[in-house]
Amino acid sequence: MNAQAATNVITDQMGPDFLLAVEGLTVSFDGFKAVDDLSFYVDENEIRVIIGPNGAGKTTVLDLICGRTKATSGSVKFKNTELTRLKEYEIVRAGVGRKFQNPSIYEDLTVFENLEISFPRGRGVFGALAFKRDAEVIGRVEEVAQTIFLADQLHQRAEYLSHGQKQWLEIGMLLIQDPELLMLDEPVAGMSVAERKKTAELLNTIIKDRSVIVIEHDMKFVEDIAHKVTVLHQGKILAEGPMAKVQADPKVIEVYLGH
Amino acid sequence: MTQALSPRFKNLIGLLLLAVLLAVVLPLVLEPFRLNMVGKYLTYAFVAVGLVLCWGNAGILSLGQGVFFGLGGYAMAMYLKLQSSTLEATKIQSTPGIPDFMDWNQITELPFFWVPFKSLPLSLLAVVLVPMAFAFIVSFPMFKRRVGGVYFAIITQALAAIMTILIVGQQGYTGGINGITDLRTLAGWDIRTDSAKTILYFVNVALLLGAIGLCLLVRGSKLGRILVAMRDKEDRVRFSGYDVASFKVFVFCLAAALAGVGGAMFTLQVGFMSPSFVGIVPSIEMVIYTAVGGRLSLFGAVYGTLLVNWAKTSFSESFPELWLFGLGALFIAVVLLFPNGLAGLYRSHVEPRIDAFLGRKGRSGSTPAPAPAE
User: Fold this and answer.
1) Structural domain boundaries in chain A
2) B333, pLDDT greater than 80
3) Which residues pair with A42 in a beta bridge?
4) What's the pLDDT score for residue A16?
5) How far is CA A198 from CA A36, A147, B121, B193, in A?
6) Range of the domain at B56
7) Which among B226, B232, B238 has CB closest to A89?
8) Does a structural domain hold residue B363?
9) Confidence of residue A159 (pLDDT cuts 50, 70, 90)
10) Is A129 part of the contact surface with chain B (CB cutoff 8 Å)?
11) Buried-most residue among A52, A85, B193, B371 (CB within 10 A)?
12) Does B367 fall in a domain?
């Protein structure tokens, strides 16, 4: 079903069923167009991988979708809601989760507290004051900790985790929000071989029932998970399609894979 | 679960130790004059406690807390001034019934913003609400526009300067450089007597312990953890669905309200309020108290305030011109050598020994540093 959805994407561009529709997205920093008239569509339950050389604008695309960078022009529609006009926290609450490239966790808090803060309840000032650590919260935190291999580290301060464990923790913090669209920026960067393998396994369990956009350089990893690959180069799409097709594309080989 | 209870238990012990020190030991040891001085120091501790939340926990350094201290202090002073400006007491003025300094400045009618301060309940509300409202107006646009760090610190410092200039310049409405003086009674009760000062000292201690209790509750809630999270990784909090700015506004307003209460208690115990407690120097001094005590420790902030003020009084009695240099050196030394202040020293050197002494379960008294009593 996923594979089928993936092949339909190009022919069915205007359909209302896309979870995410990016159209004509442009951002320019002092005249330099980091992302230039970009359009792509992500289906429900699709795993999309974005690859491309350094400076191609991959991270900027994620920044634009989650509102961290404001678009110069173009639109980003998530479930037919325009995201470019929303604030970051509103985009998160709409169901878009974002993992940063460097593990972005709260070092001074415990693993439990890290996960608890990401639990989607009591997000206003007074909601946070009145927030109770009830059975539902504890159950969900423990469940997620189990998934991210940190069940026995719950009361450890996050700063004492290894690099790989920090990456998992941040993935767990997204997981507990249960977003419909999950965006991961180089989730296996800087990991050992063993950690990489475990992470691939982890990603394979968490990407069920949601759409995922992943930025990754590790081709083996990309091959394993991608339904469809988008190759970015100088802010534009160089190629798009299934991994096999993209890998055979001479333009892609020239600017990226050949290196 | 026992692990989760332990910090709460330590906080209770810390609060209890502080209560015993302030409400039993110091009143027994000190003569009324010195006790009143400690009372004055403790009014700064309200600001320091607020700064622990605002600066230590949330990472928002404000160099303008004197403004909020002053607003609370002036709110109280205005009420007290109107109390002592009865027709009877001011009958020699050209306009009887208004504060003397207004009369000296050819003002013939009580300005509209003084009118609410005829009422004690309204004045008490103003002590808390005016600093909060002002903090909100100042911080809301800044935090929404993501002004933070050094820029926020500099703007708050400018605010302290502006406020001083405003108060000094508007002599007819504010009492100018002299401040509001000659305060006598609170709802008919003479605050100048020794017994009144002792009672006010205990009221101050009770309010301070209450303020610390409130801050402990805030810190213990999820909001407290979000503040810490924001300090570490603001973007992560934002992309976890929180409106970061509103949390910052909240903690800044809370610190301002506490500073306002401190200011009001200052006016009551010292008997006047003047712009010299509003400006840049007092605002920075208050940050130093927090830094010396340990900017992460609510109890440390109180001990730091007492210690620095005690040192200030002792030093400036003997070497008045050297004190400011000493204070500056102290600040630099703390920042460079003991970034977590007294509380940090306590945690790294004293607490482990207490824990070891009490055995593995380690249920011990927390943060109090060696008491800086005279």
Assistant:
1) 2-257
2) yes
3) A20
4) 56
5) 36, 11, 64, 74
6) 2-357
7) B238
8) no
9) very high
10) yes
11) A52
12) no
The CATH number of residue B42's host domain is 1.10.3470
Packing angle of the helix pair B280-293, B298-318 (nearest 10 deg): 120
Chain A hits for B222, Cβ within 8 Å: 116-117, 122, 128-129, 131, 133
- For the residues B93-97, what does the mean pLDDT come to? 89
CB nearest A104 (choices: B223, B226, B236): B236
What pTM was estimated for this model as a whole? 0.90
A89 touches chain B (CB under 8 A): yes
Helix, coil or strand: residue A78: strand
The total domain count for chain B is 1
Torsion angle, alpha carbons of B137, B139, B143, B148, to 10: 150
Give CATH superfamily name and number for A2-257: P-loop containing nucleotide triphosphate hydrolases (3.40.50.300)
Give per-residue pLDDT as tens, B42-94: 999 999 999 999 999 999 999 999 999 999 999 999 999 999 998 888 889 88
Question: Which residues pair with residue A97 across a beta bridge?
Answer: A182
User: Which residue would you say has higher pLDDT here, A256 or B69?
Assistant: B69
Pairing of β B185-186 and β A181-185: unpaired
For B225, which of A92, A113, A170 is closest by C-beta distance? A113
A179 touches chain B (CB under 8 A): no
Q: Which residues of B touch A (CB under 8 A)?
A: 3, 218, 221-223, 225-226, 228-229, 231-233, 235-244, 246-247, 250
Q: What is the ipTM score, two decimals? A: 0.87
